[in-house]
UniProtKB/TrEMBL annotation:
This is Aminopeptidase N. Belongs to the peptidase M1 family. CDD domains: M1_APN (cd09602). Keywords: Aminopeptidase, Hydrolase, Metal-binding, Metalloprotease, Protease, Zinc. It catalyses: Release of an N-terminal amino acid, Xaa-|-Yaa- from a peptide, amide or arylamide. Xaa is preferably Ala, but may be most amino acids including Pro (slow action). When a terminal hydrophobic residue is followed by a prolyl residue, the two may be released as an intact Xaa-Pro dipeptide. Residues 232-439 form the Peptidase M1 membrane alanine aminopeptidase domain. Its EC number is 3.4.11.2. PANTHER family: PROTEASE M1 ZINC METALLOPROTEASE, PUROMYCIN-SENSITIVE AMINOPEPTIDASE-RELATED. One of its GO terms (molecular function) is alanyl aminopeptidase activity.
Amino acid sequence: MGIRSLTRGEAERRAALVAVERYDVDIDFTALPEGPEVRCVSTVTFTCREPGAETFVDCAAEVVSATLNGTALRPAADGRIPLPDLAAHNVLRVESVQADTSAGEGVHKAVDPADGEVYVWTSFEPDEARFVWACFDQPDLKAPHAFTVTAPPTWIVTSNSGDARVEELDKARRWVFPDTPPLAVYNTVVNAGPFHELRREIDGHDLGLYARRSLADVLDRDADEIFTLTWQGLAFYAEAFAMPFPQRKYDQVFMPEFGGAMENYGCVTWSDGFLQRADPTPAERELLAVVLLHEMAHMWFGNIVTMRWWDDLWLNEAFAEFACHWAAEGATRYTDAWAGHLVSDKLKAYLADQGPVSHPIHQPIHDVAQAASIFDNITYPKGASVLQQLMTYVGEEHFRAGMAAYFARHAWHNTTLQDLIDALSEASGRDLDAWRTAWLATAGTDRFVLERDGEQVTLVAADTARPQVLAVGAYRRDGQALERTALARVEVTGARTAVTGLPADADLLLINDDDLTFATARPDDATRDVLLSTAAQLPTPISRGVAAATVWDMLTTGEATAVEAGRCLTGILAVESSDAVIEPLLTLAADIAELWAPPAERPALTAELAAVCRRLAADPGRRQVALRGLARTATAGDDLAWLREQAGDDVDLHWRALVREAELGGDVTSETDRLLARDPDPDAWIRALTVRAARPDAAAKAEVWQRVVVDRAVPVHAVGQVMAAFWRPDQDALLAPYAQRYLEVLPRLDQGGMIPAMVFAGRLFAPFSVDDAYIETARRAAEEVAPVVRKTLLERSDAVRRMLRSRTAATA
């Protein structure tokens, strides 16, 4: 039997039986420069409410020895060590070793290709600490952790509590960290390596940044921005939650071969892919800002107050995703963050919520393996949008008061959804039970239309509507622009709601103006073409974003063609003024041309977008973004020649142009070698592999599949970049074999933990060279794989099925 996943029932019984007093964890990294092994001694001090009872401790590493109160224990089985005959007070000591530090869970050794230096990181969500040391790996057994780390003498070690005492040994250093506050095991961390370190004192906080030495110049370039955002975020959340971050040290560590970012208390770990090697675009800077604020929000929502079990994962992730946009607009220069959210992640949530993976935001979770499958577009962007609606529904002042009460009442403990609802109900004076049931316990997306009868306007829900507050904007044409003449806020309590205060002569009525709720809309037959043709004339990024979201949703449901949707978005791009919106819209418009348009329509739609990019490049503020867009959409030979001329010394743009030229069949081998030789990025080899991936060449496709899928040589954060170049239109004969190979590797895609499983299951699914029959085969194959892989496959296959339908639709 393999390593078992902890069930909810098992966790409840164990939490009822034991209480953890503390963890003392000794970690030895000294073998890592030459070998793969991490050695640990975990000492767990805990009490038992029923002396004589039996339970188990989680340990999926190799157990060298294990004793309970001085008595040797039986060997581990299924990733668990039995703990018989518990005393009222117990001391468990487990020595373990983890040698799978290249592809295993929990701990990872990375070697920098630039200089051969070794770095190691740990990451434990949802239950991967057990792969490194023995622990009670469930969120409601919180306890202080004391880490002692022995590492090579040139290394720096970071952990949650900071301020380690460093002892010099013969050929190593020992880092002794003070106790953490009571934390869930998955919120702990140890990172180590010969880091480049920067520190800054701001408002009483000691802020630290770390990266591998080969990226020192990049970290130095971005440090002022990161320190400023960190200070702004800490100040915003301290005021919003009436609770300052309680620790002086707050570190952020950018690590190689890490996926995403992880909210470890006081020591956030990032993928160093967030340190852009070229000068970041505005959207890349904004992404770094919102991710930074997302992980910081977890200090309160997830670390200080922790969910009792994984069915309340949304309390962590949705809240952090909501809070990061709230804080970005309220405390930083990224004042269009909600508009950026609307035209990127929220569109993914609309699609997911209308497909086979839709689920209630709050749902029963049987075991941790299932929990790993709900780190998804329902939990994150839909959950964030629902919380934005909740703040609108109760009012921001009441929302802040409720959150302050919640943190004051539950700090350093565990909660359930009801605890949050109770705090917000008390603060707002509103009974939120109906709201909770409709929004959190019910899957699916509301859809609204408007009915007009003379001066009377009625908001009509396609199905029973959730209780919510939204706005309808009235717009009148003013030359070549639309001007908002009225905005009506509506509290929806049923399927039909009268809307008052709107002028009868409006040229366009926009449902969900200001994007206050999570709901889709449809224009009536009389205004459908008006919306498609005039969306670009709306006056604000958020109003244009709402129109774009409506058109996108119409495309995904077959109610608009790719040509209609693509031209509408291209029109918006030509006038868009917001940095937060233009890049995601450009990506969306290119996706429509490439993935959704019928093959006969693809060249013209792509050429129209390329022409817009060339025009936008004349604006210095849009130049970099526009040239990147052109690198993806260039069709004529003069496009690429002009792009190279404009790129000058911009290595990033030259790489992008090479990918496009390779896709179009150009001989780029020599130029790739020259660019690789002069690119200072230690990961430039990935760019060269991306160029090779795009080539319509059987040998190139085989090599890339081997490197990415079989060898897993590409860092997880770069897999999407490489595979986007691999799966190209008009290469079906070359790609068809790899669609079949995907089915063969499917059972093994959960190797390495949750993040790699999600990335590989989604990015390796072919958007071309497949048909509906293949999709059904893939879905059947997914019935036997890990839940996180199955969930990702179902979501991706639904999107591809919709693309296939759109590609065969008649052009309007």
